[in-house]
Amino acid sequence: MEEMLEVYCRNTDTKLLVRSGMDMLGVADFAGMKNTENILGVCVNNKVQNLNYRIYSPKTVEFLDINTTNGRRMYAFSLMFMLYRAVKELYPESELYIQHSMSDGYFCEINNLEESMPQVIGKLKERMCRMVEENIPFLRKIVPVAEAAELFERLGMKEKAELIRNSNRLYANVDLLGEVVNMFFFELVPSTAYLKVFDLYAFDDGFILQMPSKEDPSQTPKQHTKDLKLFSIFREHKNWVRILGTPYVNMLNKAVEYNKQNELIQVSEALHEKKYAEIADNIYRRKDEVKLVLLAGPSSSGKTTSCRRIATQLSVLGFKPLQISLDDYFVDREHTPKDASGNYDFECIEALDLDFFNYQMKELLSGAEIELPRFDFISGKRVQSGNRLKMKANSILIVEGIHALNPHLTDKIEAKNKYNVFVSAMTQLALDRHNLISSSDNRLLRRIVRDNNYRGYSAQDTILRWDSVRSGEEKHIFPYQENADSIFNSSLLYEIGVLKPTAEKLLFEVAQNSPAYSEARRLQNFLSEFKSIKTDFIPPTSIMREFLGGSSFAY
Hints:
Blueprint: E1 4-9, E2 14-19, H1 24-30, E3 41-44, E4 47-49, E5 59-64, H2 69-90, E6 96-102, E7 105-110, H3 117-134, E8 138-144, H4 145-154, H5 158-165, E9 171-177, E10 180-182, E11 199-203, E12 206-210, H6 228-244, H7 249-257, H8 261-285, E13 292-296, H9 303-316, E14 320-325, H10 354-365, E15 370-376, E16 381-389, E17 395-400, E18 418-424, E19 430-432, E20 435-436, H11 439-455, H12 459-476, E21 486-489, H13 495-508, H14 517-527, H15 545-548
Parallel strand pairs: 1-5, 13-17, 13-18, 14-17, 18-21
Antiparallel strand pairs: 1-2, 3-4, 3-5, 6-7, 7-12, 8-9, 9-10, 11-12, 15-16, 19-20
Helix pairs in contact: 2-3, 4-5, 8-9, 11-12, 11-13, 13-14
């Protein structure tokens, strides 16, 4: 008699009795899931698994499609593997480098090409479309670490081999697509047939691997590259990381092993100082016009520290910086717009009193004295602060906030009087040439540590809020990043090693029954690839002090 097991399906909120050994697609069918062809993977007891996973004990499951964060991750890594196989088949003497995210996709480069990029892209796309039709399965083998390291060494992936060899694990995953071998740091979809929606198009000296649109996953976004300024910052930082000789995590780990972390910290911090000085110099060149510096960036990008350090550099040049918080310009709570769920939407620009803000800024710029407001978050009312402000000849205003680069915020102020700065952490460090490090992950680790240090939040609290935070960024911040006169990359080469000890401890506290567990486990696995770096040599003015504590700035 077949053994029957109880399975709870979160998607349908139903309990099922299924036979022992059933795979996940079978469970999905049994649960009455609609459009099972769109299912890419599954969370089993809050741990991401592929659809080949079979159950032999009672489980709680949640099926993932491309509209979920983990489903989209699975799709992305699987698509990268399909691209890699196409490159190996068509251009066996060339190497694929997946550099960074861009324009709802990933910027990629291939070396040692003799054909033009349009020809290369045409052939790659044709081969990838055939692979989709061929329905080639993605397979994963678990092999001893020494065997995996030797394999990738033979394949010329030295950085991958070293990362595996120096891990603390006994076994490593090896991914197969037909006869082609690679290793990706996440679960993959069952087969190439699941990857029907993608595109490739030329950009700069490489190309964009386009993911399905977030708004309509049945198609890719229109071929446009809106992040031109951002791309130049990625390119600049990539070159700098290569100069330092640490483009991959294994090289960073080696520097730590050889006790060179102090040098890395010093050089990284010096680069930041140089960039802050450049921004101040750019403002100084327009000193006869610029009276208002507007600074925006996503969560945990280091906006507050950046404001302080830009202000310091402006002081060196003879300015008297005056900092103003947009948080004090909220409308009274009863006038705050509500979202589709009926909750107050504090992140929309209409939550600010734009008319009053523009009025006060214009008054200041005209030489008048104003009384700054103060928003009382307990009563939900704006009150007078008693803090009066008047600009002098050498004064300059600095305003930081999520809407700072939205033209609607300061539409009553002439463009010539404004200087826009966008701050974000855009890491160019990668696990290896095919496994990049997400800037979002970089910022999430910062926020986990900061939220615990300063707000008493657990890692679970921060993780569960993160999707909402990211949604707000996509809506209110990133659409305006190209409005920036200067873009500051706040990432630091050494920072994940510094964040690791605290972040690991906090992530370990996330219980398995928590919806945050799968993300906590993924981040734990990610952090396990890094060697820890002590905080001793980090200066008190560093952006990292905004998250770790010990800053010389008052926040």
